[in-house]
Amino acid sequence: MEPDVFEYPFRYPGAFEPPAEWARLRQECPVARVRLESGDEAVLLTRHEDVKQVLADPRFSRQMDADDAARLTADESGGPFGGENTVATGEAHLRWRRIVGRYFTAKRMADLRPRIAEMTERFVGDMVRKGAPADLGAAVGFPLPVWVICHLLAVPDADRDRFAYWSDTLLNLNRYQQSEIDAAQAGFVAYLGDHIADRRAHPGDDLISELVAVRDADDGRLSEGELLMTAQGLLIAGHETTSSMIGKMVAILLADRSRWERLLAEPDLVRTAVEELLRFDTIAGFGVPRYVSADVTLSAGTIAAGTTVICQVGAANRDPEAIERADELDVTRAPNGHLAFGAGPHSCIGQALARTELQTVLEVLLRTLPTLELAVPPERLRPTEGLIVGSLHELPVRW
Description:
Strand content: 5-15%
Radius of gyration: 21 Å
Distance between the termini: 51 Å
Helix content: 40-55%
Number of strands: 13
Strand order of the largest sheet: 1-2-3-9-6-4
Shape: globular
């Protein structure tokens, strides 16, 4: 193999240490050729300036179904971003975003905060009653975001184990065969189709009911396919990324307990701490793929037409050229130029919800479990390999 083609994704050296390749590539090869598990080649970007430009540039498309787009995985679908899993771009995307974005305003999420706090306290209370040590990820990190998104979409919380399987199958890079992926996709689509039909027959005060009303207005603003795609995307992305971040956030704070003690002493720092923890996250996942159909020049070089680009947001968030003391955790850092929620018109539509959940979980844990600590040495925490979304295998804690 040519020496200037790197095998990707990189392996994590631990739960709190970024891959050594991040710093090396940012400095020496910011537009790096990488070979994916499919055998296809892509370009990896690691500098903050370049990643921010690509994420905001409409010439870089989220639609990964072009004939010459790289397949992220070796299966027929090409991975979670391939084929029918793609979303609209350009004006169609802006139209979709205007419709859905009205439900995810900061005000509406703030109104939801008391309910999120109540449910967090319930999950924490259940964990405490069962006794230490406990896996905080399984006890709080997973069920809370599932409950929140189920509440917003009027989906039965009892189905959360099914969502966990569908998420794991559809977001995994190498664990499942194509037949298993197809079966999970078909089962998920059938489930959502039934749920949409139920909301159509029995509308309520939830996002799916609102979107069904928009769809049934028959004015061309929303197709049935877009309605289904939105429900699927929200159910998976609406809980998977926040679930994993809850565990990583608490782990980072407890690995150096002076950080936890600082927030106990100054709880008003929770908001800036959450932003900094999002930036500091080293288990950032695979990265954000884009496809470009015309030559584009970045600060680090030219990207040729027909190239698949992987934006490594975690590496960009550690770029010392863009962020002062980038390898230090500073819970007072403000403003914070992290790219955890993306940039531009395709930035995360649910970021207000994610921030509300992360802040609320941290506030509740600080208030109710001030003696919280890791139940194992930090070096024993293991990243989960093979997922698009970076996460910890488990988070054993005691109090």
